[in-house]
Amino acid sequence: MEIYGSAVTDRLDRGRGMFKRRYYRQHCTQEQYGYTKDLSAIHDDLASIFILDNTPNAYRHFKNNAIPITSWFCDPKDTYLLDLLPFLDALRFTSDYTLMNQNFFISKFSTLSSQVLSIYRSEEKWKSFRKAFEAFYMLCLIIFGAILGISLYYRTTNIWMLKNLGDGFLHRSEGLRPIILGAFYRMVGEQNVNGNYAVIQYLAHNFDKQKLYCISQRPNSEDDNSFVINEALIQRIHDGKRGTNDICSWSGHLAECEIASTNLNYITLSTSSDVNEIKNGMKIELETPVIRSPKEPLVVCIAPMYIYTEWQIMLTGIESWLALGATKIIIPIQSASNTVMNILKKYERDQKVILRYWPKWPVMNDVNPNGLVLSRGIEESHVNCLHFAKPFADLIAFSDIDDILMPVNPLNAKIGYNLELIHSLFKEHPQAGTLLFEHRDTQLQLPNDKSNDKTLNNFNFNFLHNSKVKQSCGVWRMKTRVIVNASRVDTVNMHESGINRFGYVQVRLPCRQAHFYHLRHSYRNLPTQTSDSINMSTVVSILNNQFKHRLSTTLSTISNLPISESRLDTFRAYDECVKAVNNEHFTLKVSRCMTPSACFAKLPSGNMNCTAASTDYSFARINSDFISAPGTLKFIPSNDCDAPIPKYTSGNSYYLP
């Protein structure tokens, strides 16, 4: 009867879902002996159906499908049907129930059902245990959280211990931190596309993925929609060089981007293209180009000058370049003795020399870039000088103050010799953007004058007669110096070419055709048995005659002033430091980048007054990135003959870069 049968099936099927369809008294067929259950009305395939009943008349027509059970007479301990349920559930996996022997099932059911029932009960027990464990776990978690919260609130737990535990889950997040070194307009004559472009030089970590946007505003427009935002094309200055390790982990980069006009007061640099971030960007003034027509035939960019500069070597370099064809010499200054500065300022007033500032870079919150840039930024300085000189220079030579291009046989020297030589070489190699010249170490002995009344009036270049040997020209690769056609290149390295433009290439010249003389006062003698003899008499005559004229013109006001002796002991210490770092490379374990900032510079003995380049820095924070830029540049007195570390004096964040 459905009235009580539905309640029973609900009780049996609770949480199992075993009963798919339900049939009651009204679904049976009434016959002479009572109600018969017609299985064919349920399913056509009788092999997949069995009937469980305690009345034989109920299944009299389907005996092969029947499993008889005993009747239940209000016995609370009777669990026969419940115990049978797991067994019946297992029959779902039987393809044809009718092929089974009923008597076998009936006789063996007690054993089989008990096995199935034990498995079923063990599963139920495991489910109960898991539910109990989950409840216990949640309870423990709640108690632990409550105790931890109370402990933190009442400060009963050591908070530093908790922080130490949390350190294992922390990692450092560091954004881009470019340091701007210079900003220049791209000359129209160097472009092969329309538009206005700017070139930004900056210093950054080698392994950072560089990104920079130039934001400029159209002239005479205050509309927010007048901003021009362009992503810069970025190239590392010495791409591929020292890029596989982090010994010298900072280096120079060039970023070129399109701007609104060539007549801008400033542009804004950002690491984000979001126009809403413009207010957070760094405003940079583009350097006003120096335009000259005709251009200077040959400009020389000298490596930055530090406390190691010896005034006699400096005069030799300047006068030799000027005599042999250079029309302008550009010298960046980081620090120098007052004697050197006084001489250079006279050459600058006579428009023979251009002095540029080359201060140190600011120290970040966790790193000092000054000790991580090769050779204190000689390559960065050369590239800065290149883009400064591009508007007014035709040819540019890059060299140290003691590296000079002279004839292979110095007896062939004459006024303007270098200019004629370089023009002939570029004519011979029309696709050359860069000429690479080997440089040969020459034994240089400075004057052995111990007098205390040294003046420029009693100085001459006769000491060059003692330079009698130089390294031979052999067929082997040697370090080179670089001379470029200014419009054909964008970067140069210390001893090789950098980025050549428009398909121009570098050409390496054999030393028998031309080479530099490295007048290195290195306190080491060159081996005479493998060296070539040289005669510097022609060079000495040219330089002495030219310097005699200089004393009556350019240097007349300081020609009789006493000159302070250069302190070569600091140079000697630096030379030994560089040798030590060089030797470390052969062990494959290098302790520092090869740069003067990584060497200990002894304070000069005696009363040696010095001058140094100085500036302050500002920074702009854009999200997690920082852009740093120098402020006003100036020369200041220096007590230790070294440039000071710049300080940050303004920024838009409480964080330091």
Automatic annotation (TrEMBL):
Belongs to the glycosyltransferase 92 family. It is found in: Membrane. SMART domains: CPDc. InterPro entries: FCP1_dom, Glyco_transf_92, GTase_92, HAD-like_sf, HAD_sf. The chain crosses the membrane at residues 135-154. It is an enzyme of class 2 (transferase). Its EC number is 2.4.1.-. Residues 1-91 form the FCP1 homology domain. PROSITE patterns: FCP1. Keywords: Glycosyltransferase, Membrane, Transferase, Transmembrane, Transmembrane helix. One of its GO terms (cellular component) is membrane. GO terms for molecular function: glycosyltransferase activity. This is Glycosyltransferase family 92 protein.
